Write a sequence for this structure.
């Protein structure tokens, strides 16, 4: 019974006519979502394996051609076709071979491949993102197996030439087509296309040449980074199969909310409540910034909703010198409870200013603007 081929396009969520760049972008997006370093859900680990397999197939032109013709290059015998047997599909290369004299040998593939990138989330406070910090991190990635130095073999043993394909990494089969008999080549199902087998795999890594372990690193966060930015640590990602070169490690910054300040770019914003009397008479405020204390003058007659600025007390610019601004938004608070003497003083004050009764604004003022807005002017 033939097993149906996996829908590798569906796993990555790309159409069948997707370009190589489309496939790479889809893979990176899904890897960031399901990588075990980011998503601890056991189901995510299985999903990540499928994503890696789909990317391995669709990023290889020969394997992708097999998928497009209805096969599965990762199944035994490359789509269910073992050596010397017929199969339900024939590739374009196979048809060309029928015209130009036999199958083209592609050779065995290397067991050594580049490792994948890894992503790690790092939560930081506003002060740390503003001024930079050297942060210790722990990352769980694949590293080189020290027992076999990446070879994947047990001590004093070596890979052996595959008896099925004779070290070619592929097998030939004869198929009947409208052109007659076609001799085609497929990756060897015994050695998975490597041309060699490992009869005695390393007991530590199981023949993969790498093991997973937890490592401690220190990452230097520059001043001025923002939420969502990524710091790239070259060569600190996954070691590749067979001891291949490591991928990169990306540290994604997540800035924790601050109790006082809200950040917008390199500018900081805060709200300060001042009594009505202080706004009317004027006062001085002491503002504790991220790294100092600043005196701020509130002029007499300051209105509710006013904003004051302290230059150069925001977040340092990530690229270039200088810092953003600090904006202080004033919330003028009107008293809600007055004793009798306080109430009488306010009444006397209102009478002195002729403010006992609220009045509608005259023409040209607020009322005029409201009228124009309703009339569509």
């Amino acid at each position: 019974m033939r097993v149906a081929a996996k829908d590798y396009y569906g796993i990555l969520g790309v159409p069948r006519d997707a370009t190589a760049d489309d496939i790479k972008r889809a893979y990176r997006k899904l890897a960031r979502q399901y990588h075990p370093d980011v998503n601890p859900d056991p189901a995510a680990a299985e999903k990540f394996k499928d994503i890696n397999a789909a990317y391995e197939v669709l990023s290889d032109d020969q394997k992708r051609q097999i998928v497009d013709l209805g096969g599965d290059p990762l199944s035994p015998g490359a789509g269910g076709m073992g050596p010397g047997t017929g199969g339900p599909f024939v590739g374009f290369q196979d048809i060309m071979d029928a015209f130009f004299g036999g199958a083209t040998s592609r050779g065995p593939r290397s067991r050594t491949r580049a490792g994948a990138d890894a992503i790690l989330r790092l939560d930081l406070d506003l002060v740390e993102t503003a001024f930079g910090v050297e942060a210790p991190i722990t990352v769980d990635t694949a590293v080189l197996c020290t027992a076999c130095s990446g070879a994947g073999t047990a001590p004093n043993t070596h890979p052996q030439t595959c008896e099925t394909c004779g070290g070619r990494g592929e097998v030939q089969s004869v198929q009947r087509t409208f052109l007659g008999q076609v001799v085609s080549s497929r990756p060897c199902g015994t050695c998975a296309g490597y041309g060699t087998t490992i009869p005695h795999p390393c007991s530590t890594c199981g023949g993969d040449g790498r093991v997973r372990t937890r490592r401690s690193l220190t990452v230097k966060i520059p001043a001025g980074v923002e939420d969502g930015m990524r710091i790239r640590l070259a060569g600190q990602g996954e070691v590749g199969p067979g001891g291949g070169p490591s991928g990169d490690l990306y540290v994604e910054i997540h800035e924790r909310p601050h109790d006082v300040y809200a950040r917008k770019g390199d500018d900081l914003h805060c709200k300060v409540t001042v009594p009505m009397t202080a706004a009317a008479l004027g006062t001085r405020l002491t503002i504790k910034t991220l790294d100092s204390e600043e005196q701020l003058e509130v002029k007499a007659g300051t209105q509710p909703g006013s904003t004051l600025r302290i230059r150069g007390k925001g977040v340092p610019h990530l690229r270039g010198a200088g810092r953003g601004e600090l904006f202080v938004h004033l919330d003028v608070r009107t008293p809600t409870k007055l004793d009798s003497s306080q109430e009488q003083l306010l009444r006397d004050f209102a009478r002195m200013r002729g403010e006992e009764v609220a009045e509608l604004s005259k023409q040209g003022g607020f009322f005029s603007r409201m009228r124009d807005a309703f009339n569509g002017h």
About this structure: The domain at 76-255 is CATH 2.60.260.20 (HSP40/DNAj peptide-binding domain). Residues 77-104 have pLDDT under 50 and may be disordered. Residues 105 and 336 are 89 Å apart (CA to CA). The longest strand covers residues 133-144.
